[in-house]
């Protein structure tokens, strides 16, 4: 039997019909968002048997908020202080310290639908190693709605066969985590995608459970939004993910720039506009499906979509080569 098959077999041990579940996450300066998350956790129709949290060195009241909640919490709470730990190191440490074999993973910045954990657990079967939950946006400001339009896919855009879950909504066994050698501690962004791909290579079986929904907010400012996309693309460059996708983006914008500088721009620019609108079609569709009430507000959202797309693309085009340079130097 190959090493890959061995790992998949070990990770597919007999599933207990009434499992005990450890919920793990990392935090860093989350004092303002934690109360809403903890309230959503307490309201779960199926509570985890424990919550293991790794704090990466918060300088606010994050740890105090957690410990205060833990005094009356409906689940056992373990807080591990590991100053300087990145998100991968924190998740690995939390899973190592977790007491149970079934591990749910989320982020502190989310609010979990009441049936989130119950849906994840119900989808786990003997022939399934990883349950991929879903995520949907929530917003308190105009910018959060605007950026969520670009960032977050609609449910009908997901192909369950190829979907790579975010670790804000995930269920794995400890053996599946081991088969992937844990989260990549050398990576600061896109670590969950690299973890997913490692589990895929190990031959583990995924199932998509759209009813397990974790809700989260996009960034609230343009600078924070651009920085987020820069970091996503830098993570792609560090890990060697999606080189063709990034190459296509560079080629598309290079062609657009060449068209603007062409000898007959008046003839070419309308075609460029149509091309960019086509390129942005799925984002317009998301904006329409998530449109606010009122015609003026909807029009404002739709007009802003191309600006959001272009800003995100420019941030990615800056971040990806930075990641590639890091990867080359690390070799």
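Q: What amino acid sequence fits the structure above?
A:
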């Amino acid at each position: 039997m190959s090493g890959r098959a061995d790992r998949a077999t070990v990770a597919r041990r007999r599933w207990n019909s009434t499992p005990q579940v450890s919920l793990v996450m990392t935090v860093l300066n989350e004092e303002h968002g934690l109360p809403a998350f903890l309230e959503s956790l307490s309201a779960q129709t199926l509570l985890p048997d424990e919550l293991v949290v790794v704090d990466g060195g918060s300088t606010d009241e994050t740890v105090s908020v957690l410990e205060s909640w833990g005094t009356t919490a409906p689940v056992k709470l373990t807080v591990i202080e590991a100053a300087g730990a990145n998100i991968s190191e924190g998740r690995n440490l939390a899973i190592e310290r977790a007491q149970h074999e079934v591990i749910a993973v989320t982020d502190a910045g989310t609010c979990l639908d009441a049936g989130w954990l119950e849906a994840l657990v119900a989808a786990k079967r003997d022939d399934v190693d990883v349950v991929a939950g879903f995520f949907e946006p929530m917003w308190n400001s105009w910018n959060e709605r605007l950026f969520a339009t670009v960032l977050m896919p609609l449910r009908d855009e997901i192909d369950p066969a190829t979907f790579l879950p975010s670790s804000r909504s995930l269920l794995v066994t400890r053996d599946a985590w081991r088969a992937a050698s844990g989260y990549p501690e050398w990576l600061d962004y896109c670590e969950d995608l690299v973890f997913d791909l490692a589990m895929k290579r190990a031959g583990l079986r995924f199932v998509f459970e759209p009813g397990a929904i974790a809700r989260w907010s996009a960034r609230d400012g343009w600078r924070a939004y651009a920085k987020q996309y820069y970091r996503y693309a830098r993570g792609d460059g560090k890990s060697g993910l999606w080189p063709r996708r990034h190459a296509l983006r560079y080629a598309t914008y290079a062609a657009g720039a060449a068209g603007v500088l062409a000898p007959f721009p008046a003839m070419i620019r309308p075609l460029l506009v149509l091309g960019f609108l086509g390129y942005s079609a799925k984002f317009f569709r998301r904006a329409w499906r998530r449109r606010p009430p009122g015609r003026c507000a909807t029009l404002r959202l739709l007009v802003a979509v191309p600006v959001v797309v272009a800003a995100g693309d420019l941030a990615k085009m800056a971040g990806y080569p930075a990641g590639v340079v890091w990867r080359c130097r690390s070799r």
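Q: And what stands out in the fold?
A: Residues 295-330 form the longest helix (36 residues).
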